Amino acid sequence: MVDTAVDIDNEKLNDNGNNNGNGNNNGNGEGEGEGEGTKSKYCNFYNGNVDAIGLSWLASGRGMLIMSNIFMATSLLFLAKDAAGCFEEPIADGQCNKPIYGMKAESFITNIATIAAVLAAFFMPICGALVDYTPHRKLVGIVTALLLVAIQVIQIGTVEQTWFAMGVLQALSAFIYQLQLVTLIAYLPEIARQVGVLSMTKVSSNLYLVEYASSALFLVAMTGITIAFKTSAVVTGQISRGITTVMSMITFAVGWFIYLTPRPAVRPVPEGHWLLLEGFNQNWRTAKSVQKHYKHGLRYFLLANVFAEPSAQAITTVLIVYLSSSIELSISQIGIFFIVTVIAVCIGTGLGRFITNKTTPLLSWKLSMIYLFITHMVGALVLDGIPHDLKEMSYIWGIFVGLGLGWYHPTQTLFFSLVVPPGQEAEFSGLLVYCTQILAWLTPLVFSILIEFDVPQKYGVIVTASGFLIAVFFLMLTCSWEDILKESNADIDMTTTTVTAAQGGGEEEGTKNKNTYPPLDEERA
Predict the structure, then answer these.
(1) pLDDT-based confidence at 491, cuts 50/70/90?
(2) Cβ contact 348:250 at 8 Å
(3) What percent of the chain clears pLDDT 90, i.e. is strictly above it?
(4) What are the start and end residues of every segment in region (Disordered) (predicted)?
(5) CA-based end-to-end distance of the chain
């Protein structure tokens, strides 16, 4: 097992000490007081970093919440189609063309995703300002977590009379979920500088492994309930919300109240500036800084996220509509599809780590997106042409989709954690999240438009995945991985797992960073 030596500069160490107080941790798993035994429990899994342990608790809750959204979306889609009269007569090719509230019933779910993305794009800079310019990062995380739990409680009452209002709440929930991510992403670069490059690969992979493992367990439980009790789509959605309400209360409470540490404001609000607008100003200033100082690496990474993340985020929503309408899978079959997908995601996490070990995060991330585009294109075209009695073949497609997602997400996170400039984690985290949302509304909107014009949904799936190819194009314009690290002026020692000072660290420390990328599975005693 890797025993990581963590050397943090005095300012960061003092910040951790001031925030923790008596009986809390120092950010590296070395807590004092009663919580010491508990907070070192996952030492091997996360190198003792308590913030990483906190993120893992939140990841398990988010995994179940995301999977619950699958059953809730299926329930809302069923109720929308029922209200539109889609079940009154046979439907050709499984697609319903009847409107409800001025839109076709099958576009209701993707329209929800579009609304949520527009809200996120507008309000994320405000949330980012609270994270950056105030010491309330943890408070923002707690408030958004409480709102997510409250909405889940209300959505247990999803029935024929309330489905449209619950759809509005679903859009609000998806928007609040993105605000929660703003606070969490800000922790990742700080964790990377504490545990080192080699260990951060393991931490990043393990966080996603926990999220996807909890997703798989939840899906197995819900699908088992559906098969055993033959519950309808609506009842299944209600049960899933009830379970995730309880589990979210537990995991969110442990993550936020026990493990995750407070953070001070990065800087005060400039004199004469308004806090609520400063997030937009900060994003603009950070974008100009990227264009001026980090235009060979980080700039293209952010541009790649503008197009890749909308595709990655829309996959689940689009597949729910495609599988239920075009392929005509039942609620239990959709559950099995996503069980297979999530299990494959867990395997894909290990696959991504292996490929990254042998190459670099830059090349590995590009390959993952090429793979995802090909998988979605081939799968949609093949499934659309097979006989209806072979629709279970879609499970094989789920395996390949899961492998790609498990490879894509941890590699993306690792890439960002290693190239963000030291001391600028908060503003660059905010800009990254904003980049992932600025066009997130476009992909589901295009899918909805294709439905409105009666275009076969298989082409909508291909269009959804096309953002990955655009992202790969931007990554082809970067410099080498070693030069990206050099340009970012990262103070992470690439030849050991310690953290060094890239600026003003003296000749000895300056020569330690060779900007090489050793195999990440290399273990040191």
Answers:
(1) very low
(2) no
(3) 55
(4) 1-35, 499-525
(5) 7
- Please tell me the distance from the alpha carbon of residue 15 to that of residue 466, in angstroms, as a whole number: 44
Q: What is the pLDDT of residues 251-307, one digit of tens each?
A: 999 999 999 999 888 788 888 889 888 888 888 988 999 999 899 999 999 999 999
User: What are φ and ψ of residue 135, in 5° steps?
Assistant: -85, 30
Residues 326, 387: Cα–Cα separation, whole Å:
12
Two structure tokens written together for 356: 């990254």
Q: pLDDT value at position 18?
A: 39
At 193-215, the pLDDT tens digits run 888 767 887 887 788 889 878 98
User: Which two three-digit tokens encode residue 253?
Assistant: 């409470």
Half-sphere exposure of 370 (CA within 13 A, CB side): 11
Q: Which residues contact 58 (CB under 8 A, 6 or more apart)?
A: 145, 184, 251, 252, 255, 256, 260
CA-closest candidate to residue 68, choices 148, 135, 3, 10: 148
The kind and range of the H/E element at 315 are helix 298-321
CB burial of residue 228 (10 Å; 0-12, 13-18, 19+) = exposed
Contact call for residues 369 and 407 (beta carbons, < 8 A): no
| Helices and strands per DSSP (H, E), number in the chain | 20, 2
Q: DSSP letters along 67-130, please?
A: HHHHHHHHHHHHHHHHHHTTTSS--GGG----EETTEEGGGHHHHHHHHHHHHHHHHHHHHHHH
Instruction: Output the pLDDT for position 19.
Output: 39
Domain 49-87+102-263+293-512 sits in CATH at: 1.20.1250.20
Reduce the DSSP state of residue 51 to 3 states and report it. Answer: helix
Contact 158, 72 (CB under 8 A): yes
Q: What is the DSSP letter of 33?
A: G
Task: Identify the bridge partners of residue 344 per DSSP, sorted by sequence position.
Answer: none
What's the full length of the chain, in residues? 525
d(CA 141, CA 276): 17
Helix (H) or strand (E) holding 153: helix 137-155
Cβ proximity of 155 and 166 under 8 Å: yes
